[in-house]
Amino acid sequence: MTDTQDLVSWSFPTRIVFGEGAAEQCGVEAVRLGGQRALLVADKGVKAAGLLDPIRKALDVAGVAHESVLDVSSNPLESQVLGAAREYDTFKADIVIGVGGGSVLDVAKLVRLAVTHPEPLAQYDDAIGGGENIVGPLPPMIAIPTTAGTGSEVGRSGVVTIQATNRKTVIFSPLLIPDAAILDAAMTQTMPPAMTAATGMDALTHCVEAYCSVGDHPMADAIALGGVRLCHNSLRAAVEDGRDLRARGDMLKAAMMGAVAFQKGLGACHSLAHPLSVEFGMHHGLANAICLPAVLDFNRSAIPDRIAEIARQLGVRSDDPDTLSFECAGAVRALRGAIGLPSDLSSQGIEESDLPRLAALANADSCHKQNPRSCSQDDLLALYKACFDDS
Ligand SMILES: NC(=O)c1ccc[n+]([C@@H]2O[C@H](COP(=O)([O-])OP(=O)(O)OC[C@H]3O[C@@H](n4cnc5c(N)ncnc54)[C@H](O)[C@@H]3O)[C@@H](O)[C@H]2O)c1
Ligand SMILES: [Fe+2]
Q1: Please, which residues bridge with residue 100 across strands?
Q2: Pocket of ligand 1, candidates 74, 270, 282: which has the most ligand atoms within 8 Å of its Cβ, to mutate?
Q3: Ligand 1 near 106 CB (within 6 A)
């Protein structure tokens, strides 16, 4: 992507345990990390799906005491992090285990920050370079994802709404990466089809945007393309038959690979998606699914070869690179339709008159700074308009 050899740094540090029965390893993994008293962070949906039971059992077998907190909402709040941190202290825990989707894993990651750093979480906001104020060591953590989308289990950030600003705030530091991730397809089997579809499109968008983003990161590029291929092969099957463990496992891999890859960067699609969640409560993956095709079309003139390569991984067949890059957005639209997701913002309670305000918020979001084609606020507005009535 670049002819220069700018100084860059590449790293892939997480220990990942994958496969059938992996969840049963969490006791062994906790002991390996020196844990004797675990704070389990989950939410009510995860508990209701019965997903805490095998984890508690595995901890009992390994002789690790445990206490659970379930107060985590889908867009987690600072108060929930602080509440879980109090529980960590009261229980005298020495390890955190997150069992859930991206929301739960983010809270679990940030509990370790809150119990070691007494200052308000706002001080660690990535927008003000707050990650520099985070000093290790943090307590050890195991992440057990029950959705296949965010890849937070291998990521360096935690996202939380800060009370003082009511803004979804990214806290970013390599120290936040969990010490181990346990990927067990059985833990995602209970996800309903619409959630499987939306979270899967988040994984796909991470892979696509990472591969397209500016910067030189050959490992992230290769992993991103592998993740796109897994989504092409298995997202539809995971939605159609939630019990298909092969497809579920592939989507867990794709989500994890997307988050590993997006340490390279993301792009305009995530900048468009973030305000849709904050202002309209849209699920993050659904917001990405609606916006991604328009962003691919927008980026085509800047990186036609990369977009052609993504099209190949999505199963488009042609010997002509122009045809491939042209067909890429269509392949994403086809996948989105096949998994039953809506295609336009107008169906999501958004009015055309909301779009200028949303474009200003998208412009303030930093993700589009890594987009391969620079985009102004007007470009972002045009992209929202293109997604408004996409068919
Ligand atoms: N840290 C990061 O790098 C990163 C990246 C992207 C998104 N995020 C954050 O992740 C969050 C979205 O995460 P998500 O998409 O995984 O959804 P989620 O964690 O918000 O969960 C959504 C719902 O699904 C339920 N659920 C989870 N797993 C289930 C299962 N196996 N069976 C039945 N129900 C289940 C939960 O109880 C919840 O009600 C957002 O808050 C977003 O900000 C973080
Ligand atoms: Fe995302």
Answers
A1: 145
A2: 74
A3: yes
Query: Which ligand has the shortest distance to the CA of 151?
Result: 1
85 C-beta closer than 6 A to ligand 1: no
- Contact at 8 Å (CB) between 94 and 34? yes
Q: Which of 2, 67, 57, 7 is nearest to 27 (CA)?
A: 57
Strand ranges inside the chain, DSSP E: 15-18, 37-41, 65-69, 95-100, 141-145, 157-162, 167-172, 180-183
Of the bound ligands, which one is closest to the alpha carbon of residue 171? 1
Q: Please give the distance, rounded to the nearest whole angstrom, from the Cα atom of residue 205 to the centre of ligand 2.
A: 7
* Residue 101 in contact with ligand 1 by CB distance below 6 A: yes
Q: Each residue's pLDDT tens digit in the chain (391 positions)? A: 455 677 766 667 789 999 989 999 999 999 999 999 999 999 999 999 999 999 999 999 999 999 999 999 988 999 999 999 999 999 999 999 999 999 999 999 999 999 999 999 999 998 888 999 999 999 999 999 999 999 999 999 999 988 887 777 889 999 999 999 999 999 999 999 999 999 999 999 999 999 999 999 999 999 999 999 999 999 999 999 999 999 999 999 999 999 999 999 999 999 999 999 989 999 999 999 999 999 999 999 999 999 999 999 999 999 999 999 999 999 999 999 999 999 999 999 999 999 999 999 999 988 999 999 999 999 999 999 999 986 5
Domains and CATH numbers, the chain: 15-188 (3.40.50.1970), 193-388 (1.20.1090.10)
Q: 202 C-alpha vs ligand 2 centroid, how far in Å? A: 5
Separation of 175 CA from ligand 2 center, angstroms?
20
Residue closest to 205 by CA, chosen among 177, 235, 176, 184: 235
Closest C-alpha residue for ligand 1 atom 2: 152
Tell how far the Cα of 270 is from the centroid of ligand 2, in angstroms.
6
Instruction: Indicate if the alpha-carbon torsion angle 246, 250, 251, 252 is positive or negative.
Output: positive
Which residue type occupies 140?
A: P
Ligand nearest to the CA of 199: 1
